[in-house]
Amino acid sequence: MDAATLKRYRKKLADLKAEIVAGGDIDIEPGRADPTAVGSDEDEQPLAEMSQTIASSRNRARAAVLTRVVAALARIDDDPEMYGLCIECEEPIAAKRLDLMPYVELCVECQQAEDGPRKPGGRRHLRDFR
Ligand SMILES: [Zn+2]
To answer: What pLDDT, on the 0 to 100 scale, is given for residue 26?
Structure first.
């Protein structure tokens, strides 16, 4: 990744961090796109009770995102060459994915392996078999 691109992601992360911090603990912003909610159907649930549940899960998601944003910023400062590479397989993460979630640590494949059912014996590193 070249310096200009890295700088752009660093700025994105810094902005995201500021935004999350400024948002406070409890802050429902239905109009705002939530990168952690991609593919979900939350817009179809108007009940206040439901919103409450979503709000608290969103706050948890925000706190989790903040942690990852801070970690990504630290990664850029400590080891800029590793930023944008999957921490699992060290393959470059797709730019589209980084644009959406500049704090992401895993490529799509490793993320799916992480989210998917755990197989006995744990994950395998494809790299080990090359
Ligand atoms: Zn990976």
So the answer is: 46
- Rounded to the nearest whole angstrom, what is the distance from the C-alpha of residue 86 to the centroid of ligand 1? 5
Q: What are the residues whose beta carbons fall under 8 Å from the beta carbon of 87, sequence distance 6 or more?
A: 105, 106
From the CA of 56, how far away is ligand 1's center (Å)? 30
* pLDDT computed for residue 53 by the predictor: 77
Residues in the chain where the model's pLDDT stays below 50: 26-29, 38
Q: What is the pTM of this model?
A: 0.65
**pLDDT reported for residue 25:** 60
d(CA 55, CA 42) in angstroms, rounded, equals 11
Among 37, 66, 77, 39, residue whose Cα is nearest residue 54: 37
Q: How far is the CA of 130 from the centre of ligand 1 (A)?
A: 15
Cα of 110 vs centre of ligand 1, distance in Å, is: 4
- The angle at the Cα of 35, spanning 14 to 49, to the nearest 5 degrees, equals 120
Distance 4 CA to ligand 1 centre (A): 24
